[in-house]
């Protein structure tokens, strides 16, 4: 059975229950299966040898999630070819694709945890009450070791963009 963390975070001030471990810098990045489309799946090994900034958002169609994804899309141009930025949510791949087209986001890969929830549970961000993933940031080096983690204690707040970008820049 997966680890449960109650009260580790809130949504609009209300406690939520997170499923999975609380990962820390120095931990090996857990594998995952995420959907690029309804049928095409990717895992951690698909990004082997790259520095990975994983930006987790509850739903791409909300204000903070939209701003977070746009910000990392802007930053991507300055990070080089050895860096991939992945935005993970439980939104359907159709909704993610529609949003990217409307927002002009083309440097961030949007990946969906809707089908297996393997990312949410492996990274300790799956919210039991809402069926969403908690807003969080993970920076993973080219050898799949986590070097930076930010779990947002309140789901409606923005992450520390500068610290996340600096953690990536320290690896390239």
Summed up, the helix count is 4
Q: Which structural class is indicated by helix and strand composition? A: alpha+beta
> Taking Cα atoms only, what radius of gyration do you get, to the nearest Å?
15 Å
Largest sheet: 5 strands, mixed
Approximate shape: globular
Through-space gap between termini: 37 Å
State the low-pLDDT regions, or none.
Answer: none
Quantity of strands, as a count: 11
Q: Hey, roughly how much beta strand do the residues contain?
A: 25-35%
Q: How is this structure best described in words?
A:
There is one protein chain. With 172 residues, the chain is α+β, with helices and mostly antiparallel strands. 23% of the residues lie in helices and 30% in strands. The chain has helices spanning 63-76, 93-103, 118-122, 161-169; strands at residues 4-11, 14-19, 33-35, 41-43, 51-56, 83-89, 109-112, 126-127, 132-133, 136-140, 146-151.
Q: Helix and strand layout, with pairings?
A:
Elements: E1 4-11, E2 14-19, E3 33-35, E4 41-43, E5 51-56, H1 63-76, E6 83-89, H2 93-103, E7 109-112, H3 118-122, E8 126-127, E9 132-133, E10 136-140, E11 146-151, H4 161-169
Parallel strand pairs: 5-6, 6-7
Antiparallel strand pairs: 1-2, 2-8, 3-4, 5-10, 8-9, 10-11
């Amino acid at each position: 059975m997966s680890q449960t963390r109650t009260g580790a975070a809130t949504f609009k001030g209300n406690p939520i229950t997170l499923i999975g471990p609380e990962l820390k810098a120095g931990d090996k990045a857990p594998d995952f299966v995420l959907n690029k489309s309804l049928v095409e799946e990717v895992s951690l090994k698909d990004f082997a040898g790259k520095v990975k900034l994983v930006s987790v958002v509850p739903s791409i169609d909300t204000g903070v999630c939209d701003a977070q994804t746009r910000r990392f899309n802007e930053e991507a141009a300055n990070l080089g070819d050895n860096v991939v930025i992945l935005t993970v949510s439980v939104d359907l791949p159709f909704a993610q694709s529609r949003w990217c087209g409307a927002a002009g986001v083309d440097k961030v890969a949007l990946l969906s945890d809707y089908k297996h929830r393997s990312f949410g549970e492996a990274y300790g961000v799956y919210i039991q009450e809402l069926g969403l993933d908690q807003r969080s940031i993970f920076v993973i080096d080219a050898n799949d070791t986590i070097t930076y983690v930010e779990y947002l204690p309140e789901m409606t707040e923005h992450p520390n963009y500068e610290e996340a970008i600096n953690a990536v820049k320290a690896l390239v």
